[in-house]
Automatic annotation (TrEMBL):
Similarity section: Belongs to the short-chain dehydrogenases/reductases (SDR) family.
Organism: Anopheles sinensis (Mosquito)
GO-annotated molecular function: all-trans-retinol dehydrogenase (NADP+) activity
InterPro entries: NAD(P)-bd_dom_sf, Sc_DH/Rdtase_CS, SDR_fam
Keyword list, A-Z: Lipid metabolism, Membrane, NADP, Oxidoreductase, Transmembrane, Transmembrane helix
PANTHER family: FI23927P1-RELATED (PTHR24322:SF748), PKSB (PTHR24322)
Annotated region (Disordered), positions in chain: 1-20
Protein's job: Catalyzes the reduction of all-trans-retinal to all-trans-retinol in the presence of NADPH.
Name of this chain's protein: Short-chain dehydrogenase/reductase 3
Cellular-component GO terms for this entry: lipid droplet; membrane
Pfam family, one: adh_short
Membrane topology: Multi-pass membrane protein
Localization of this protein: Membrane
Location, primary (coarse class): membrane
Amino acid sequence: MNSWTVNDKPTLASPSPGEEPAPTRLHLKLVIALEPLLAVLLIVVDLVKVVMLGLPRLASEIYSIFVPRAKKNVRGQLAVITGGGNGLGRALAHQLAARGARLVLVDIDLAAAERVCEELKQEHGVSAWAYRVDVSRYEDCRQLAEHIERDGCGPVDILVNNAGLILFGFINECSVERAATVVDVNVKSHIWMTKVFLDGMIERKRGHIVGVSSMSGMYAFPWGGIYSATKFAVCGLMASLSEQLRIQGHSKYVKTTCVNPYYVATRKDVVEFLQKPRFSPLTVEQAGREIAAGILREDVVVTVPRLFGVFTRLML
Ligand SMILES: NC(=O)c1ccc[n+]([C@@H]2O[C@H](COP(=O)([O-])OP(=O)(O)OC[C@H]3O[C@@H](n4cnc5c(N)ncnc54)[C@H](O)[C@@H]3O)[C@@H](O)[C@H]2O)c1
Protein backbone atom coordinates (compact mmCIF):
# COMPACT_ATOMS: atom_id res chain seq x y z
CA MET A 1 0.00 0.00 0.00
CA ASN A 2 1.31 3.43 -0.89
CA SER A 3 1.69 5.80 1.99
CA TRP A 4 2.25 9.51 1.71
CA THR A 5 4.23 11.53 4.07
CA VAL A 6 4.27 15.30 4.27
CA ASN A 7 7.53 15.32 2.42
CA ASP A 8 6.13 13.24 -0.47
CA LYS A 9 3.49 15.81 -1.39
CA PRO A 10 4.24 17.81 -4.54
CA THR A 11 5.40 21.24 -3.45
CA LEU A 12 5.32 24.59 -5.18
CA ALA A 13 8.36 26.75 -5.40
CA SER A 14 8.53 28.46 -2.03
CA PRO A 15 8.13 32.23 -2.23
CA SER A 16 10.89 34.32 -0.87
CA PRO A 17 10.11 36.05 2.46
CA GLY A 18 7.37 38.74 2.04
CA GLU A 19 6.45 37.40 -1.40
CA GLU A 20 3.01 35.85 -2.01
CA PRO A 21 2.74 32.21 -3.23
CA ALA A 22 2.60 31.91 -7.03
CA PRO A 23 -1.08 30.72 -7.37
CA THR A 24 -2.31 33.64 -5.23
CA ARG A 25 -0.37 36.12 -7.37
CA LEU A 26 -1.81 34.56 -10.50
CA HIS A 27 -5.32 34.71 -9.03
CA LEU A 28 -4.88 38.36 -8.10
CA LYS A 29 -3.57 39.25 -11.56
CA LEU A 30 -6.56 37.48 -13.13
CA VAL A 31 -9.05 39.31 -10.93
CA ILE A 32 -7.42 42.68 -11.66
CA ALA A 33 -7.43 41.95 -15.38
CA LEU A 34 -11.08 40.88 -15.34
CA GLU A 35 -12.31 43.75 -13.16
CA PRO A 36 -13.10 46.22 -15.96
CA LEU A 37 -14.74 43.43 -17.91
CA LEU A 38 -16.87 42.52 -14.88
CA ALA A 39 -17.89 46.17 -14.39
CA VAL A 40 -19.00 46.42 -18.02
CA LEU A 41 -20.90 43.14 -17.68
CA LEU A 42 -22.72 44.42 -14.57
CA ILE A 43 -23.69 47.64 -16.35
CA VAL A 44 -25.06 45.58 -19.25
CA VAL A 45 -27.03 43.37 -16.82
CA ASP A 46 -28.45 46.49 -15.12
CA LEU A 47 -29.43 47.98 -18.47
CA VAL A 48 -31.12 44.74 -19.52
CA LYS A 49 -32.98 44.71 -16.18
CA VAL A 50 -34.20 48.29 -16.69
CA VAL A 51 -35.29 47.61 -20.26
CA MET A 52 -36.85 44.19 -19.60
CA LEU A 53 -38.51 44.97 -16.26
CA GLY A 54 -38.60 48.73 -15.85
CA LEU A 55 -39.81 50.00 -19.18
CA PRO A 56 -42.85 47.67 -19.45
CA ARG A 57 -43.73 48.69 -15.88
CA LEU A 58 -43.33 52.36 -16.70
CA ALA A 59 -45.39 51.92 -19.86
CA SER A 60 -48.17 50.11 -18.00
CA GLU A 61 -48.24 52.80 -15.25
CA ILE A 62 -48.43 55.58 -17.85
CA TYR A 63 -51.13 53.64 -19.73
CA SER A 64 -53.17 53.22 -16.54
CA ILE A 65 -52.91 56.96 -15.85
CA PHE A 66 -54.52 57.75 -19.21
CA VAL A 67 -56.83 54.71 -19.28
CA PRO A 68 -57.64 54.20 -15.59
CA ARG A 69 -59.28 51.04 -14.26
CA ALA A 70 -62.93 51.43 -13.27
CA LYS A 71 -63.46 52.60 -9.70
CA LYS A 72 -65.53 50.40 -7.41
CA ASN A 73 -68.87 51.53 -6.06
CA VAL A 74 -68.74 52.10 -2.31
CA ARG A 75 -72.23 53.54 -1.89
CA GLY A 76 -73.72 52.17 1.34
CA GLN A 77 -70.53 50.34 2.30
CA LEU A 78 -69.04 50.82 5.76
CA ALA A 79 -65.48 52.13 5.95
CA VAL A 80 -63.51 52.24 9.21
CA ILE A 81 -60.66 54.76 9.21
CA THR A 82 -58.14 54.87 12.04
CA GLY A 83 -56.76 58.32 12.81
CA GLY A 84 -59.83 59.72 11.05
CA GLY A 85 -59.90 62.85 13.20
CA ASN A 86 -57.17 64.70 11.34
CA GLY A 87 -54.91 64.92 8.28
CA LEU A 88 -54.99 62.15 5.71
CA GLY A 89 -57.62 60.16 7.66
CA ARG A 90 -60.00 63.09 7.55
CA ALA A 91 -59.31 63.72 3.85
CA LEU A 92 -59.96 60.06 3.02
CA ALA A 93 -63.16 60.09 5.06
CA HIS A 94 -64.42 63.04 2.96
CA GLN A 95 -63.44 61.30 -0.30
CA LEU A 96 -65.27 58.07 0.60
CA ALA A 97 -68.29 59.88 2.05
CA ALA A 98 -68.58 61.91 -1.16
CA ARG A 99 -69.12 58.56 -2.94
CA GLY A 100 -71.84 57.51 -0.48
CA ALA A 101 -69.84 55.34 1.93
CA ARG A 102 -70.81 55.30 5.62
CA LEU A 103 -67.93 56.02 7.96
CA VAL A 104 -66.64 54.88 11.34
CA LEU A 105 -63.88 57.20 12.47
CA VAL A 106 -61.55 55.85 15.10
CA ASP A 107 -59.16 58.15 16.90
CA ILE A 108 -57.43 58.57 20.24
CA ASP A 109 -58.72 62.16 20.01
CA LEU A 110 -62.48 61.60 20.24
CA ALA A 111 -63.40 65.28 19.90
CA ALA A 112 -61.54 65.48 16.57
CA ALA A 113 -63.23 62.33 15.24
CA GLU A 114 -66.63 63.67 16.31
CA ARG A 115 -65.98 66.98 14.56
CA VAL A 116 -65.16 65.18 11.30
CA CYS A 117 -68.26 62.97 11.65
CA GLU A 118 -70.40 66.13 11.85
CA GLU A 119 -68.70 67.49 8.69
CA LEU A 120 -69.43 64.23 6.84
CA LYS A 121 -73.10 64.23 7.86
CA GLN A 122 -73.57 67.87 6.89
CA GLU A 123 -71.54 67.94 3.67
CA HIS A 124 -72.31 64.48 2.28
CA GLY A 125 -75.48 63.38 4.10
CA VAL A 126 -73.99 60.03 5.15
CA SER A 127 -74.08 58.20 8.49
CA ALA A 128 -70.89 58.52 10.51
CA TRP A 129 -69.83 57.31 13.94
CA ALA A 130 -66.85 58.34 16.08
CA TYR A 131 -65.06 56.09 18.58
CA ARG A 132 -62.22 56.76 20.97
CA VAL A 133 -59.73 53.94 20.45
CA ASP A 134 -56.01 53.63 21.07
CA VAL A 135 -55.23 51.44 18.07
CA SER A 136 -51.85 50.42 19.47
CA ARG A 137 -53.74 48.31 22.08
CA TYR A 138 -55.24 45.01 20.94
CA GLU A 139 -58.00 45.06 23.60
CA ASP A 140 -59.20 48.51 22.40
CA CYS A 141 -59.37 47.24 18.80
CA ARG A 142 -61.29 44.09 19.83
CA GLN A 143 -63.81 46.15 21.80
CA LEU A 144 -64.25 48.49 18.84
CA ALA A 145 -65.56 45.55 16.77
CA GLU A 146 -68.11 44.80 19.53
CA HIS A 147 -69.22 48.44 19.70
CA ILE A 148 -69.62 48.69 15.93
CA GLU A 149 -71.87 45.61 16.00
CA ARG A 150 -73.80 46.82 19.10
CA ASP A 151 -74.40 50.26 17.59
CA GLY A 152 -75.75 48.75 14.36
CA CYS A 153 -73.18 50.34 12.04
CA GLY A 154 -73.09 47.09 10.07
CA PRO A 155 -70.29 44.82 8.88
CA VAL A 156 -67.03 46.49 7.93
CA ASP A 157 -66.34 46.52 4.17
CA ILE A 158 -63.26 48.73 4.09
CA LEU A 159 -60.65 49.07 6.82
CA VAL A 160 -58.16 51.91 6.43
CA ASN A 161 -55.25 51.53 8.86
CA ASN A 162 -54.11 55.13 8.69
CA ALA A 163 -53.30 56.25 12.28
CA GLY A 164 -49.60 56.84 12.65
CA LEU A 165 -47.04 59.05 14.34
CA ILE A 166 -44.49 60.90 12.24
CA LEU A 167 -41.05 61.04 13.82
CA PHE A 168 -38.13 62.97 12.40
CA GLY A 169 -34.71 62.59 14.00
CA PHE A 170 -31.70 60.37 14.31
CA ILE A 171 -32.06 57.05 16.16
CA ASN A 172 -29.57 57.85 18.95
CA GLU A 173 -31.34 61.14 19.68
CA CYS A 174 -34.76 59.58 20.25
CA SER A 175 -35.92 58.47 23.71
CA VAL A 176 -36.71 54.81 24.27
CA GLU A 177 -40.29 55.69 25.30
CA ARG A 178 -40.96 57.74 22.17
CA ALA A 179 -39.47 55.06 19.90
CA ALA A 180 -41.61 52.37 21.56
CA THR A 181 -44.80 54.45 21.16
CA VAL A 182 -44.08 55.12 17.48
CA VAL A 183 -43.49 51.41 16.82
CA ASP A 184 -46.67 50.49 18.74
CA VAL A 185 -48.90 52.98 16.91
CA ASN A 186 -47.35 52.61 13.44
CA VAL A 187 -46.94 48.83 13.35
CA LYS A 188 -48.96 47.02 16.02
CA SER A 189 -52.17 48.91 15.18
CA HIS A 190 -52.11 47.47 11.63
CA ILE A 191 -51.70 43.95 12.99
CA TRP A 192 -54.41 44.29 15.68
CA MET A 193 -57.02 45.94 13.46
CA THR A 194 -56.40 43.43 10.66
CA LYS A 195 -56.65 40.54 13.12
CA VAL A 196 -59.96 41.87 14.42
CA PHE A 197 -61.66 42.52 11.05
CA LEU A 198 -60.13 40.10 8.51
CA ASP A 199 -62.08 36.93 9.43
CA GLY A 200 -65.45 38.71 8.99
CA MET A 201 -64.40 39.95 5.54
CA ILE A 202 -63.36 36.44 4.50
CA GLU A 203 -66.63 34.95 5.83
CA ARG A 204 -68.77 37.53 3.99
CA LYS A 205 -66.54 37.23 0.90
CA ARG A 206 -66.26 41.02 0.78
CA GLY A 207 -63.62 43.34 2.13
CA HIS A 208 -60.72 45.65 1.56
CA ILE A 209 -57.81 46.34 3.90
CA VAL A 210 -55.77 49.48 3.31
CA GLY A 211 -52.45 50.09 5.05
CA VAL A 212 -51.10 53.63 5.01
CA SER A 213 -47.33 53.37 4.84
CA SER A 214 -45.16 56.11 3.32
CA MET A 215 -42.53 56.85 0.72
CA SER A 216 -40.26 56.32 3.78
CA GLY A 217 -41.39 52.68 3.63
CA MET A 218 -39.88 52.35 0.14
CA TYR A 219 -36.87 54.59 0.48
CA ALA A 220 -35.06 55.08 3.82
CA PHE A 221 -34.58 58.77 4.53
CA PRO A 222 -31.64 59.17 6.97
CA TRP A 223 -33.44 61.63 9.24
CA GLY A 224 -36.20 59.17 10.16
CA GLY A 225 -34.73 55.75 10.91
CA ILE A 226 -37.36 54.66 13.42
CA TYR A 227 -40.26 56.05 11.36
CA SER A 228 -38.82 54.47 8.22
CA ALA A 229 -38.48 51.10 9.97
CA THR A 230 -42.16 51.17 10.94
CA LYS A 231 -43.22 52.10 7.41
CA PHE A 232 -41.10 49.33 5.85
CA ALA A 233 -42.86 47.02 8.32
CA VAL A 234 -46.28 48.17 7.05
CA CYS A 235 -45.20 47.54 3.42
CA GLY A 236 -44.00 44.08 4.43
CA LEU A 237 -47.19 43.31 6.30
CA MET A 238 -49.37 44.41 3.38
CA ALA A 239 -47.31 42.45 0.83
CA SER A 240 -47.53 39.36 3.01
CA LEU A 241 -51.27 39.79 3.61
CA SER A 242 -51.84 40.16 -0.11
CA GLU A 243 -49.94 36.89 -0.76
CA GLN A 244 -51.72 35.14 2.13
CA LEU A 245 -55.13 35.99 0.65
CA ARG A 246 -53.95 34.85 -2.78
CA ILE A 247 -52.72 31.42 -1.64
CA GLN A 248 -55.84 30.96 0.53
CA GLY A 249 -58.04 31.72 -2.47
CA HIS A 250 -59.67 34.87 -0.98
CA SER A 251 -57.96 37.51 -3.09
CA LYS A 252 -60.86 37.83 -5.55
CA TYR A 253 -63.13 39.31 -2.88
CA VAL A 254 -60.81 40.57 -0.09
CA LYS A 255 -58.53 43.25 -1.53
CA THR A 256 -55.46 44.92 -0.09
CA THR A 257 -53.90 48.29 -0.83
CA CYS A 258 -50.60 49.59 0.53
CA VAL A 259 -50.41 53.39 0.33
CA ASN A 260 -47.06 55.17 0.08
CA PRO A 261 -47.47 58.94 0.08
CA TYR A 262 -44.69 61.48 -0.24
CA TYR A 263 -44.73 64.23 2.43
CA VAL A 264 -48.14 65.81 2.98
CA ALA A 265 -48.82 69.12 4.68
CA THR A 266 -51.03 67.64 7.39
CA ARG A 267 -49.19 69.03 10.38
CA LYS A 268 -47.26 72.17 11.27
CA ASP A 269 -44.19 70.19 12.43
CA VAL A 270 -44.04 68.30 9.11
CA VAL A 271 -44.21 71.53 7.10
CA GLU A 272 -41.59 73.23 9.31
CA PHE A 273 -39.20 70.28 9.15
CA LEU A 274 -39.39 70.11 5.36
CA GLN A 275 -38.29 73.74 5.02
CA LYS A 276 -34.71 72.64 5.81
CA PRO A 277 -34.23 70.09 3.04
CA ARG A 278 -36.39 72.42 0.88
CA PHE A 279 -39.01 69.77 0.11
CA SER A 280 -42.44 71.07 -0.68
CA PRO A 281 -45.15 68.79 0.65
CA LEU A 282 -48.35 67.79 -1.16
CA THR A 283 -51.59 69.37 -0.04
CA VAL A 284 -53.84 67.19 2.11
CA GLU A 285 -56.65 67.45 -0.46
CA GLN A 286 -54.42 66.35 -3.35
CA ALA A 287 -53.02 63.40 -1.38
CA GLY A 288 -56.51 62.40 -0.16
CA ARG A 289 -57.88 62.48 -3.71
CA GLU A 290 -55.05 60.40 -5.17
CA ILE A 291 -55.10 57.85 -2.33
CA ALA A 292 -58.89 57.45 -2.53
CA ALA A 293 -58.66 56.97 -6.31
CA GLY A 294 -56.06 54.21 -5.83
CA ILE A 295 -58.21 52.49 -3.17
CA LEU A 296 -61.28 52.66 -5.41
CA ARG A 297 -59.29 51.18 -8.33
CA GLU A 298 -58.26 48.43 -5.86
CA ASP A 299 -54.59 48.99 -6.67
CA VAL A 300 -52.32 46.74 -4.59
CA VAL A 301 -49.79 49.55 -4.15
CA VAL A 302 -50.59 53.26 -4.38
CA THR A 303 -47.78 55.80 -4.48
CA VAL A 304 -48.54 59.49 -4.26
CA PRO A 305 -47.59 61.19 -6.53
CA ARG A 306 -48.07 58.25 -8.85
CA LEU A 307 -45.04 58.66 -11.13
CA PHE A 308 -42.74 59.29 -8.16
CA GLY A 309 -43.44 55.72 -7.09
CA VAL A 310 -42.67 54.30 -10.52
CA PHE A 311 -39.29 56.04 -10.63
CA THR A 312 -38.49 55.04 -7.03
CA ARG A 313 -39.26 51.40 -7.84
CA LEU A 314 -37.07 51.60 -10.94
CA MET A 315 -34.15 52.87 -8.87
CA LEU A 316 -34.42 50.21 -6.11
N1 LIG B 1 -48.08 63.76 6.60
C1 LIG B 1 -47.17 63.16 5.87
O1 LIG B 1 -46.24 63.79 5.33
C2 LIG B 1 -47.26 61.68 5.62
C3 LIG B 1 -46.53 61.14 4.56
C4 LIG B 1 -46.57 59.78 4.34
C5 LIG B 1 -47.33 58.97 5.17
N2 LIG B 1 -48.03 59.50 6.20
C6 LIG B 1 -48.81 58.61 7.05
O2 LIG B 1 -50.16 58.93 6.95
C7 LIG B 1 -50.82 58.61 8.17
C8 LIG B 1 -51.60 59.82 8.65
O3 LIG B 1 -50.68 60.87 8.84
P1 LIG B 1 -51.14 62.36 9.07
O4 LIG B 1 -50.05 63.21 8.56
O5 LIG B 1 -52.51 62.54 8.55
O6 LIG B 1 -51.11 62.41 10.66
P2 LIG B 1 -51.97 63.36 11.64
O7 LIG B 1 -51.16 63.50 12.87
O8 LIG B 1 -52.45 64.57 10.96
O9 LIG B 1 -53.23 62.43 11.97
C9 LIG B 1 -53.08 61.21 12.63
C10 LIG B 1 -54.32 60.92 13.45
O10 LIG B 1 -54.08 59.68 14.13
C11 LIG B 1 -54.53 59.83 15.48
N3 LIG B 1 -53.81 58.90 16.35
C12 LIG B 1 -52.54 59.02 16.79
N4 LIG B 1 -52.26 57.99 17.61
C13 LIG B 1 -53.34 57.21 17.68
C14 LIG B 1 -53.66 56.02 18.37
N5 LIG B 1 -52.78 55.43 19.17
N6 LIG B 1 -54.90 55.49 18.22
C15 LIG B 1 -55.81 56.11 17.42
N7 LIG B 1 -55.57 57.25 16.75
C16 LIG B 1 -54.35 57.79 16.88
C17 LIG B 1 -54.26 61.29 15.82
O11 LIG B 1 -55.04 61.72 16.92
C18 LIG B 1 -54.61 61.98 14.52
O12 LIG B 1 -55.97 62.35 14.48
C19 LIG B 1 -49.73 58.15 9.14
O13 LIG B 1 -49.69 56.76 9.17
C20 LIG B 1 -48.48 58.72 8.53
O14 LIG B 1 -47.34 57.99 8.88
C21 LIG B 1 -48.02 60.84 6.43
